[in-house]
Amino acid sequence: APILFYSYVKDYFDYMWVALRDVRQNIREAAVIALGACLNLISERESKLRYQWYYKILDDSRQQIKGGSVEAVHGGLLVIGELLEHSVGNFILQHYDEVSNIITQHKDHQNKLIRKTVVELIPKLARVDIDKFLTRPLLCESCLKHIIQLIKTNASNEDIKTINNN
To answer: Which of 49, 67, 124, 151 allows an S-S link to 84, with CB 3.0 to 4.6 Å?
Structure first.
């Protein structure tokens, strides 16, 4: 089946945003699981298109996040998380600072789900390149202060579980 699906990857990337902007959180989360499987598929194949697809996904994520609705921002952040986990080669390293900025800009978002997603993305960001994470004082300090602030303040048990699980 992967061989059959591979010929439809471009179409999938064009249409996945409908589900990633859905008002129902479980639909967005299912869509990002499917995206992860798709990214695994393209990472296993040697293709000139791989980096074009990664770039398109990142660019579409930027646009979704700029769209402003909670659903679009959440979907865009979920997609960035999948890129952090599944892109191969130097793609994500070349966009590390930009991705870091996108994530940290949303740490104080008014929506709890967005804030929770940011907390889940911080360890993924660090795992991509721990040296880059640690040598960017503003990034590392901002993330650590954010997590410490969650623990110090009246962070919900769910937020703390999210931190502990990552």
So the answer is: 124
Q: How far apart are CA 137 and CA 132, in angstroms?
A: 9
Report the distance separating Cα 84 and Cα 127, nearest Å. Answer: 9
pLDDT in tens, 145-162: 878 887 877 655 555 555
- Which of the 8 DSSP states describes residue 46? -
DSSP state of 110: S
What tokens does 43 get? 């990472």
Cβ 70 vs Cβ 22: under 8 Å: no
Residue-wise pLDDT tens digits, 18-68: 999 999 999 999 999 999 988 988 888 777 788 888 999 999 999 999 987
